[in-house]
Amino acid sequence: MKKRSLFxxxxxxMIGAVLFCLIGCGNRSDNNDRSMKSDESQNExxxxxxxxxxxxxxxxxxVPAIGHYKVNTRQHYCFYIDTVKYWYEYxxxxxxxxxxxxxxxxxxxxxxxxxxxxxxxxxxxxxxADGPFALKIDMEYKDSDGTTHPIIxxxxxxxxxxxxxxxxxxxxxxxxxxxxPVSKKITVVNGNYLREYHHIQEDEYPHGVSxxxxxxxLGITYEYLYDETLCFQNGHLDVWTLIGQYTFDYxxxxxxxxxxxTQIEKSTEGELKEYAEKxxxxxxxxxxxxxxxxxxxxxxxxxxxDGFEKWRKDNGADIICSxxxxxxxxxxxxxxxxxxxxxxxxxxxxxxxxKYLIISPDKPGFAGHSAVNYNDVYDFFQx
Length: 383
Known about the structure:
The chain has 383 residues and is an alpha+beta fold.
């Protein structure tokens, strides 16, 4: 009996020791995990602040109006360095670097200190009345006491007298990547400029309105086009979209938008034929639901509103809604047996009588932007 009791006692002690070891190991493992996670968090926090200098430039946005838009090459000499994510949380800290190899020590270098002094010396007395936009430098730096100092300098009509020195220092701060030229010739954004460098065509803005007046009214400046801290912000429109929106509003194209809630009216095959002959310069095909033809070289298909659903299903067209809830169309298909799904997009308008829908294909414009000829669509309805 004594032997069995001793044996049981030994077994209990052994099990207890094993459990203690397991619990201890688990606790140590948990502690190690917590320690590793804590270290990782500290490292991440450290990484976030590694690039911000204790003394020197913490952010710099450089917008000189001295360059032209060029396709497939450097478009301008604007850049930003942003160690504190001041302008845009999801962009890189440095706009001009191909690889993440920027030398952040430059922001605390003598070149940085000299750059700060030169920028502070730029006069603040120019306004838009002095001429076109010439320069904006928006920056912030920390002094030796850790105090933060914001600086914004904007010039119109001319570049500052110390421009040569500023360019030299800016090139040093950008590791010579930008190759900013010492040029004092200001790039002026006007109608000729947008036509030449952004390929804005006459059909893309209202007939009878000068592009120069639109530029002035919309405030399209060199800064608007190329300031990289603006171009990626929510709500900032590229110049093509901006002018397209202006033209849309100017011509009152909202009156011709088609919505799911739009009340449609019935028409007959004979009425469709009469409407098509009046509005199209040439007719290529016609049936009881639609008529296909051209107006000023543009392809249009006129569809009876009460036959729209039948036409849509017969053509395999899906409805897509724009941001303003207006209806557009998209037709999917494979090209040349390619398994990649291709598609064609179409604009959809409704005649003021609400008896006919006008379908026109989307045409890509310069750099892939949609180039809607609202002038021809507007004139189509005015007949």
